Every structure is written in structure tokens, then in C-alpha cells.
């Protein structure tokens, strides 16, 4: 079970990445690696960025690639989180009609929007092979991570503001 110390340690590691890396895309890649490697229940971790009316897959880590490299905003659990600007936690993906099936092993999912100045610019998508793997502690932790990487998410795939999705 993940402890408060595990979350705190991961945030400290992310802070070190943010302070040492100058390239935004490298920060996001290392953040994905950190989340995947530190938390056993996080079986697949990816960051999507907003591009026009779509989410486009950026860095990811897991046993295999997803076929969902471009998701229209509003479609699936990822698209719902981007449209609303609110974190989505799904305890049983097979019971949620919005779920866009990626891996037969996935049982639960959390999607955390990444907002910059009140606009969704990306999101963190995490699958787990365990049912109901994500709770309030994961949500709070990942929302902090999203806040910390928001500027890098914007810079890494900046399209002059066109990609921003207003959630106000």
C-alpha cells in the first residue's frame, strides 16, 4: 500500500527533476518514468497534450503502446476529464461505458487534467491492472504533480495558445 512518505518522496524527486532539467519534453518523460517506476499499481502511465480539439499522446511508459494516440476531447474517460477539467477515477473500467479499451489487463484508471492559467493543456493518464487501485490520496498526489508539470506541458507542445482548452 502506498504511504504518505511514498508520495512525499516522489514529489521531492519530481522537484529535483524540475530544478535540474531545462528541456520541457525531458521533464515530462522523466515525470512519466518516475510515476511508473515508483508505484507498483501504476501499470501504464502517459501524458496527453491538448492539440486543437484532440488529446495527443506524449511520453508514456508501460508494457506496451496504446492504440489511442489521439483522442477527441469529450470522448472516453480521457476526453471527459479534458472537457470538464476534473479528475476522473474509474474503479472498474469494464463497467464504465466511456472506457476506450487499451489493454485487456487494465482494471481501473485515473485521469488528471493538467491546467495552466485555468486552461487544460494536457493530462496524466494512469491505468492499473488492479481493480479500484486509485483513491483520494492518489488523486491529491497526481493533482499536485499535474500542477508542477503544467508549464512544461505547455512549453513542450506549445501551439501558440491554440491548443488550450478553456475549463472556466
Q: What does the largest sheet look like?
A: 7 strands, antiparallel
For the record, the CATH architecture stands as 2-Layer Sandwich
Q: Which percent band covers the strand fraction?
A: 25-35%
Count of discrete domains:
1
CATH class: Alpha Beta
**Unreliable segments (pLDDT under 50, ≥5 consecutive)?**
159-168
Number of E strands? 7
**Number of continuous helical runs:** 4
Stated plainly, the CATH topology is called Beta-Lactamase
Instruction: Give the % helix.
Output: 25-40%
Order of helices and strands: HHEEEHEEEHE
C-alpha Rg (nearest Å): 15 Å
Shape verdict: globular
How would you classify the helix and strand content by structural class? alpha+beta
End-to-end separation: 36 Å
- Averaged pLDDT: 87
Q: What report would you give on this structure?
A:
Strands 1, 2, 3, 4, 5, 6 and 7 form a 7-stranded antiparallel β-sheet that branches. A hairpin with a 2-residue loop joins strand 5 (108-116) and strand 6 (119-128). The chain has 4 helices and 7 strands. The N and C termini lie far apart (36 Å). It has helices at residues 4-20, 24-38, 76-84, 136-156; strands spanning 44-51, 54-61, 70-72, 88-90, 108-116, 119-128, 165-166. It is globular, with a radius of gyration of 15 Å. The chain has one domain: 2-Layer Sandwich (Beta-Lactamase), CATH 3.30.450.40. With 168 residues, the protein is an alpha+beta fold.
Amino acid at each position: 500500500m502506498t504511504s504518505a512518505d511514498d508520495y512525499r518522496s516522489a514529489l521531492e524527486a519530481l522537484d529535483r527533476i524540475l530544478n535540474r532539467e531545462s528541456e520541457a519534453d525531458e521533464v515530462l518523460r522523466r515525470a512519466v518514468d518516475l510515476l511508473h517506476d515508483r508505484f507498483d499499481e501504476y501499470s501504464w502511465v502517459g501524458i496527453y497534450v491538448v492539440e486543437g480539439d484532440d488529446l495527443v499522446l506524449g511520453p508514456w511508459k508501460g508494457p506496451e503502446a496504446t492504440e489511442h494516440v489521439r483522442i477527441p476531447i469529450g470522448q472516453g474517460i480521457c476526453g471527459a476529464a479534458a472537457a470538464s477539467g476534473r479528475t476522473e477515477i474509474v474503479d472498474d473500467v469494464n463497467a464504465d461505458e466511456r472506457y476506450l479499451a487499451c489493454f485487456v489487463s487494465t482494471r481501473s484508471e485515473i485521469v488528471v487534467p493538467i491546467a495552466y492559467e485555468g486552461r487544460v493543456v494536457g493530462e496524466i493518464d494512469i491505468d492499473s491492472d488492479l481493480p479500484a487501485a486509485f483513491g483520494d490520496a492518489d488523486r491529491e498526489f497526481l493533482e499536485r504533480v499535474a500542477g508542477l508539470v503544467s508549464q512544461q506541458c505547455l512549453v513542450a507542445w506549445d501551439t501558440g495558445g491554440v491548443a488550450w482548452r478553456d475549463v472556466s
